[in-house]
Structure formats: structure tokens, C-alpha cells
Amino acid sequence: MTRLRDGINGGTLGTWIKLSSPESVEIMAHAGFDFVVIDLEHTTLDLGAASTHIAMARALGVDPLVRVPDHGLSVIQRVLDAGAAGVVVPHVDTVQQARAVVRATCFPPRGDRGSGGTSRAGRWGQLPRADYLEYGNEQALCVVQLESEVAIRNTREILALDGIGAAFVGTADLSMSMGVAAGSDEVDRLVASALAAAAAAGVPIGTASATSDQARAALARGYDYVVVSNDTSILAGGGRAIVNALKEPVAERVAR
């Protein structure tokens, strides 16, 4: 995924996909997002839905990442063979965990991923084996989520590992694990250290935001990419805005 790997000037924008309908990805692609993150951690989406989302994103020229539920090799291997541009792996706290996650994304001798060249990633067996293996080892993006104080303090060592394609700071879980508010000084200092470590390592770093204003502030602070809102919240927010706009004037007239 070259957009995140290279860190486009001006920031790169993605959004979470939480609904099973492939129209979610289609709509976000036409809206202009650079990438989508299909969320298998905090939704009931299964691998079948993820595969359909990946195919839709690929067809429309949008990079599909998949946030896997854990560090397990099985799911990482299957979503990469389904054609994902990379994986976002939650709760990577230590160098040892990061090294294991990288190995799950790479083929031997660099890693432990098995060969499945008759999958979408191998163009159903039509891609030369050497190209299939090269893409898996060199192009499939491994994004580590740093969402604890331990993880942030290990950022420099984690990002120094060969095979880490990008970092993602999960400030919600970070602040919750520390027992402080998301905007507290303690969280702000840790975020600043993570940004500095990523810049020193030359590794793109991103975060999530609920609104466009938050995303703009994150990019201004130095994040290379932002995952903005999600399909469910965008749908809910649009529906609520319509109802509020129409019902409030009615309520005011009734009150008069």
C-alpha cells in the first residue's frame, strides 16, 4: 500500500468499514477516501464479508486494509490471501509481539506465512509464484496499533524492526489503559514521543478521529494518515441531522 508506506504530502485519509454490505466500501470509494479499514476487531464481520469488501475496494482503486481481531497467524494469512493490502494489528505492546506479527505477514525465511498462490492475492493462480511471494514480503503492509503506555514506550524499538510498514496510535485505548482522559497531558506527552519516534524511523504513523476537525488537527500535529469516522457513524450522523433539521422547526411552531 504505497499511500501509507510513502506518507503522502498533506495526509492520507481512510475510514473504518463496520457494516457487511459491500455498498459501504463502494460509497466510501466514490466519496474519495484513499483507503478503507475493514474492522474484524470490533464488529461481527466475518471473513466472507471481508473478502467481498476487499474485492470491491480493489475494483474501485481503493486500498483495503483489514484490522484483524488479534495476533493470530491464521486470520492474518487468510485476509492477505483474500487480497488485503495489509493488516492493522491491535494491541502490539512489545518488540517480541511486533516481531511475531511481522513474521505472520511474511513468507519463509522471513516469516511463517504459508503459500496460497491460488487465492485472490495470487490472481487465482495466474500470478507468477515469484511475484506472489515478492508482494507478500515487500508490499503487504503490517500496521501495528500502539495503544498502551508500554507500547508507546517501546515505539522506537518496535518501529526499528524490518517489516513494520506503519504505526497507528489508538488514543482511546491508550487513555483508558492509563485511567486518564483522552486529552490529558499524560496522553499528549506519550503521543508526542510516538510521533517523534516514527519520524526518526521514517515510518508513517496515523491515528483515528471521529470528525473532520479532529482529523485536520491530527494531520497538523504531524500524523501521516488519519482514519476518519466509519460507515455506521456517517450513516447515523446523516440520519440524525435530517431528523433534527426537520423536527426542531416543527417543535418550535407547536410551542408557539
TrEMBL record:
Xref: SUPFAM superfamilies: Phosphoenolpyruvate/pyruvate domain
Domain HpcH/HpaI aldolase/citrate lyase: 14-233
Gene Ontology MF term list: aldehyde-lyase activity; metal ion binding
Keywords: Lyase, Metal-binding
Coiled coil: none
Pfam families associated with the record: HpcH_HpaI
Gene Ontology CC: one annotated term: cytoplasm
InterPro entries assigned to the protein according to its UniProt record, in alphabetical order: Aldolase/citrate-lyase_domain, HpcH-HpaI_aldolase, Pyrv/PenolPyrv_kinase-like_dom, Pyrv_kinase-like_dom_sf
Family: Belongs to the HpcH/HpaI aldolase family.
Protein's UniProt name: 2,4-dihydroxyhept-2-ene-1,7-dioic acid aldolase
Organism: Streptomyces griseoaurantiacus
